[in-house]
Design a protein that fits this description.
Residues 101-142, 221-246 are annotated as: Disordered. By secondary structure, the chain is an alpha+beta fold. 10% of the residues lie in helices and 16% in strands. It has a domain at 4-125: Photosynthetic Reaction Center, subunit H, domain 2 (Photosynthetic Reaction Center, Chain H, domain 2). It has four helices and eight strands, in the order αββββββαβααβ. β3 (38-45) and β4 form a beta hairpin. The protein starts with 6 loop residues before the first helix and ends in a 123-residue tail after the last strand.
């Protein structure tokens, strides 16, 4: 027999039918609002467990960590669909389920199933709501920011260089002749020529390599501030009858 204390422990357990055939895992448990006794549960069935079917917990028990139901797998497969997000089973929903399961659908612990059907509510694993928020995920990506080319061209400039040059000049050298050493001498006209030489600057150019130039890249790290819009969920209480003030 499944008691109120076992309610939360049922979530996620494997359910088997009366013949021991595997049906699916328990998804939600519905309890009697008056006494908290578990009365109905949903079981994930179908391909990949995408369908939720209601099963009665009357006559069910926990055996070896699994839930043994008192109904057959075929009944669960053909159970009426009550919606995937049903928060509460009203009287008409429970009556439809009882008609489908027959005697196994009787969930009245005091012999009056109609009284309990009016107060069957949903209880999750911890009766909590999950609130979600978006977060900014900041990263970096590399993009082309521009291109730089290395190009050489020719310019003409005037340069002035001082160059030392030499030239020859004429000097007159006189050598006295001692008597008797000059031999015979004659008087008349004579001429002697000397060739003078001089250097002059000569301008020319030669080409020679002076340096090698190349383009390199370096990585510079800087801080930039980015901003974006994120969404987050907030919760509020709708309590028109002020139950929380009691």
């Amino acid at each position: 027999m499944i008691t109120e204390k076992m309610t939360q422990d049922l979530i996620g357990r494997q359910a088997f039918d009366a013949r021991g055939e595997k049906i699916g895992k328990i998804g939600q448990v519905y309890v009697d609002d008056r006494n908290g006794a578990p009365t109905w549960a949903t079981v994930h069935t179908g391909l990949f467990g995408t369908k939720e079917s209601f099963v009665p917990l009357d006559g069910a028990d926990v055996k070896g960590g699994d839930v043994a139901l008192s109904v057959e797998k075929a009944q669960v497969k053909d159970a009426p669909h009550m919606g995937d997000t049903a928060e509460h089973l009203d009287a008409s929903d429970e009556q439809e389920l009882r008609r489908h399961y027959g005697a196994n659908g009787h969930t009245g612990h005091d012999g009056r199933s109609a009284d309990t059907s009016a107060g069957t509510g949903r209880r999750g694993a911890d009766d909590a709501m999950t609130r979600s928020e978006e977060r900014l995920r900041v990263g970096t990506e590399t993009e082309e920011a521009g291109r730089v080319r290395l190009r050489k061209y020719v310019v003409t400039e005037q340069q002035t260089v001082t160059v030392p040059v030499t030239h020859e000049e004429v000097t007159l050298e006189r050598e006295p002749i001692e008597n008797g050493r000059s031999g015979s001498a004659t008087i008349g006209e004579a001429e002697h020529e000397v060739t003078l030489h001089a250097e002059k600057p000569v301008v020319g150019t030669t080409t020679e390599a002076v340096e090698r130039v190349r383009l390199n890249t370096e990585t510079v790290t800087e801080d930039r501030t980015v901003s974006g819009t994120v969404r987050k969920e907030k919760v509020e209480i709708d309590d028109p009858k002020h139950h929380l003030d009691r």
